[in-house]
Design goal:
Distance between the termini: 37 Å
Structural class: alpha/beta
Number of domains: 4
CATH architecture of the largest domain: Alpha-Beta Barrel
Bound molecules: alpha-D-glucopyranose, calcium ion
Number of helices: 15
Radius of gyration: 24 Å
CATH superfamily of the largest domain: Glycosidases
Oligomer: single chain
Helix content: 25-40%
CATH topology of the largest domain: TIM Barrel
């Protein structure tokens, strides 16, 4: 049944609220996506991962779902959605939907029922008595990812409910078999409507340790995690030629085979976070990017057995843009830097994900305090103002590097008003650099980053060395260059990417000197055709086939 098509797939992520507004109300929507299907096709990608479009009160922009079987009004109707899937499939593009089932919205009918003490839905969620005298302290020390305790007191019943995210996102109780069946039914409902897979939101949080002991280890890849995913796979994923990718905090190269080896029957792939944490300290404060660490983390994932498929991404809707993070001060070489990052990423043994706008080199945006929209940012400001207002200027600075808002500014389609995203004022600030950075302009220039992504995707497609080959870092300790070899059945490719805005010497490893080679991709017009010791120019990127 499973063709495992994702091994040779490139996936494009759409954050619908910020992609394209089809009806002029300032909010991206499904008709907007439909109007851009030819553009998506032109990239050469095989699938789209669409962030949630289900009914939602939008406390966390759709990651709080109040009805899993219908579409959010702002985004359109189920008929619009059907037209979108049809349009994708006609173009040979598959659709991966977001599956947010660690929690629902507090406006979901299950939770509304669950609040009533004697309801049959009570046990759909996690209700606990509080600690201390009168139970006025939360049941344990778990923290919400959006600041503050992960428990909310409910006056009526005198109990607390768990929410690992906002208090409008109560956690489902996966220990209840009815909940697990509901989730499988939801998946099958969408599979039957034509979806090709799911991206499973914070999926490693679904199983909580019995008795809810203190500490986040009690809910990260918890005691029944494998059992529950295996069951979901049996009831749903395995019945379709589907693919799944789990947002998998706690799954590392050391334990990944237990989750994603093809023989396991759980999820096909996972998103990991280790390579995204290098430029942070204490998990939060910005720190210097360390290329050596970065390469070694990716190399660990590359070394997994062939029956485990890694993923690679540089951006998504929760991360700031990759350019300001990974390549230093790129000055006027923004696109060259983007090409260097694209080169290092696109030829790994992994399923690459490209986030909307990454292909044209969108950047972070400067936000004044009132311009931040993301619940995570707002909660941080709220807390700092309460406990230590003097820190606000510093925190604003940090958030201007780190906030999820950076990924959520409207997609820059053209130099027209509102970046061609909408005819009305968008829900979220447009990055003022849209006049220089936009799709229309990128289309006009053969040497744009956009066209470079297209070439890289084309070269990757169907290329066995890239899809199946072995991986070896070249100069793992080099702080400036990301270079690696891939090899399959005697065929080899050498990938070289200069991460610096300066010239850097590259010595060709002894064993490769003067081998016959063919330059297949480069980001400077007059790149060296022959593999010899060379001086790489600023952000120069090269891919050679070797014999
Ligand atoms: C995931 C999503 C993020 C969301 C959170 C809660 O991390 O990617 O956007 O806020 O889960 O659903
Ligand atoms: Ca709209």
């Amino acid at each position: 049944m499973k063709t495992r098509w994702y091994k040779d797939a490139v996936i494009y992520q759409i954050y619908p609220r910020s992609f394209c507004d089809g009806n002029g109300d300032g909010i991206g929507d499904i008709r907007g996506i439909v109007s851009k299907l030819d553009y998506i096709k032109s990239l050469g990608v095989d699938a789209v991962w669409l962030s949630p479009v289900y009914k939602s009160p939008n406390d966390d922009n759709g990651y709080d779902i109040s009805d899993y079987r219908d579409i959010m009004d702002e985004f359109g109707t189920l008929d619009d959605w059907k037209e979108m899937v049809k349009g994708m499939h006609e173009r040979g593009i598959k659709l991966i939907m977001d599956l947010v089932v660690n929690h629902t919205s507090d406006e979901h009918k299950w939770f509304i029922e669950s609040r009533k003490n004697n309801s049959e839905y009570r046990d759909y969620y996690i209700w606990q008595k509080g600690r201390g005298k009168n139970g006025k302290k939360p049941p344990n020390n778990w923290k919400s990812s959006f600041v503050g305790p992960a428990w909310e007191y409910d006056k009526e019943s005198g109990e607390w409910y768990l929410h690992l995210f906002s208090k409008k996102q109560p956690d489902l109780n996966w220990d209840n078999p009815k909940v697990r069946q509901e989730v499988a039914d939801i998946c099958n409902y969408w599979f039957d409507l034509g979806v090709d897979g799911f991206r499973c939101d914070v999926i490693t949080y679904i199983s909580k340790k019995e008795g809810y002991p203190n500490g986040s280890a009690s809910y990260t890849v918890g005691p029944h995690y494998h059992e529950y995913i295996h069951e979901l796979n049996e009831r749903s994923f395995s019945k379709y030629d589907s693919m799944t990718v789990g947002e998998a905090i706690g799954i590392t190269p050391d334990n990944a085979t237990e989750s994603i080896d093809e023989s396991v029957g759980e999820m096909d792939t996972v998103f990991s976070f280790d390579h995204m944490q290098i430029d942070y300290k204490y998990g939060f404060l910005p720190a210097k990017f360390n290329l050596v660490k970065y390469k070694n983390i990716l190399a660990r994932w590359q070394s997994l057995p062939k029956t485990c498929q890694p993923t690679i991404y540089l951006e998504n809707h929760d991360q700031p843009r990759c350019l300001p993070r990974f390549v230093g001060d790129y000055k006027d070489k923004r696109e060259k830097a983007g090409m260097s990052l694209a080169t290092a990423m696109m030829f790994l043994r992994a399923t690459p994900y490209i986030y909307q706008g990454q292909e044209i080199g969108m950047t972070n945006c400067h936000f004044e305090e009132e311009e931040f929209k993301d619940i995570a940012s707002l909660r941080v400001f709220e807390l700092v103002k309460k406990i230590c207002p003097i820190l606000m200027p510093y925190v604003k600075k940090v958030m201007n590097r780190r906030a999820r808002d950076h990924a959520r500014t409207p997609m820059q389609w053209s130099a027209d008003k509102y970046a061609g995203f909408s005819t009305a004022e968008p829900w979220m600030k447009v990055n003022p650099n849209y006049k220089e950075i936009n799709v229309e302009d990128s289309e006009k220039r053969e040497d744009s980053l956009l066209n470079y992504y297209r070439k890289a995707i084309r070269y990757r497609k169907g290329n066995e060395v890239i899809i199946k080959g072995g991986f070896e870092l070249v100069y793992p300790e080099d702080k400036r260059i990301f270079a690696y070899m891939r090899e399959y059945n005697g065929k080899k490719i050498l990938v070289i990417a200069n991460y610096k805005n300066k010239t850097v010497k590259f010595r060709v490893p002894e064993k490769l000197l003067y081998t016959d080679c063919k330059l297949v991709l480069s980001n400077y017009a007059d790149a060296p055709q022959k593999l010899d010791n060379m001086t790489l120019r600023e952000y120069e990127a090269l891919v050679y086939e070797l014999d």
